[in-house]
């Protein structure tokens, strides 16, 4: 089984793709999986949203995860419209892509993820990459990939219990 953790941060979609074979084997990072998706700079409005949706759907088709788990936002107040709009647009594109590709979609709080993986909710970026069988810290770990992997690991751990 494959699980895709997703974190949206600063207008970028970060991925954490795991293979969770079960049978007592630990989940491991999928080496060839995409790292992140940066929305097209030259597009605006509906065209930008449509492009993001198509690219996210393509990533999901290629990875073919059983489940996609989104890291819920910790920030809920004092957002500027542009920041909130970008996040909501990317999350909406992700949700639609999951629905159209027939992939289960869940949004988990950082508290739930942190409790399962043993990392404080506000520090998911410090999730130990060694637990994924990785020898060095992956690119974009602190920006959002660490949190995305933590979400994927939490989902995989939930499926094993």
Structural features, described:
Strands 1, 2, 3, 4, 5 and 6 form a 6-stranded mixed sheet that branches. The model has no long low-confidence stretch (mean pLDDT 91). Helix 1 packs across helix 2 (81-101) and helix 3 crosses helix 4 (141-160). This protein has 161 residues and is α/β, with parallel strands linked by helices. The protein has a single domain (2-160), classed as Ribonuclease H-like superfamily/Ribonuclease H (Nucleotidyltransferase, domain 5). It has 4 helices and 6 strands; from the N terminus they run E-E-E-E-H-E-H-E-H-H. Helix content is 42%, strand content 19%.
Q: Give unreliable regions as ranges.
A: none
Assembly of the depicted chains = single chain
What's the shape? globular
Can you count the helices? 4
Q: State the helical fraction.
A: 40-55%
What fraction of residues sit in β-strands? 15-25%
CATH architecture: 2-Layer Sandwich
SSE string, helices as H and strands as E: EEEEHEHEHH
By CATH, the superfamily comes out as Ribonuclease H-like superfamily/Ribonuclease H
Question: Mean pLDDT score, rounded?
Answer: 91
Keywords:
161 residues; 6 strands; 42% helix; globular; single chain; 4 helices
Task: Summarize, please.
The protein is of the alpha/beta class and 161 residues long. 42% of the residues lie in helices and 19% in strands. It has a single domain (2-160), classed as Nucleotidyltransferase, domain 5 (2-Layer Sandwich).
């Amino acid at each position: 089984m494959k699980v895709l953790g997703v974190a949206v941060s600063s207008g970028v979609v970060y991925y954490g793709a795991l293979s969770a074979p079960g049978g007592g084997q630990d989940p491991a990072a999928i080496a060839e999986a995409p790292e992140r998706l940066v929305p097209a700079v030259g597009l605006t409005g509906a065209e930008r949203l449509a492009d993001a949706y198509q690219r996210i759907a393509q990533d999901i088709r290629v990875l073919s995860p059983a489940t996609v788990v989104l890291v819920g936002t910790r920030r809920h107040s004092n957002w500027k419209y542009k920041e909130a709009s970008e996040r909501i647009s990317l999350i909406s594109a992700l949700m639609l892509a999951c629905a159209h590709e027939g992939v289960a979609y869940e949004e988990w709080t950082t508290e739930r993820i942190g409790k399962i993986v043993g990392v404080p909710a506000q520090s998911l970026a410090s999730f130990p990459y060694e637990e994924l069988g990785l020898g060095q810290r992956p690119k974009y770990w602190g920006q959002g990939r660490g949190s995305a992997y933590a979400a994927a690991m939490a989902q995989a751990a939930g499926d094993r219990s």
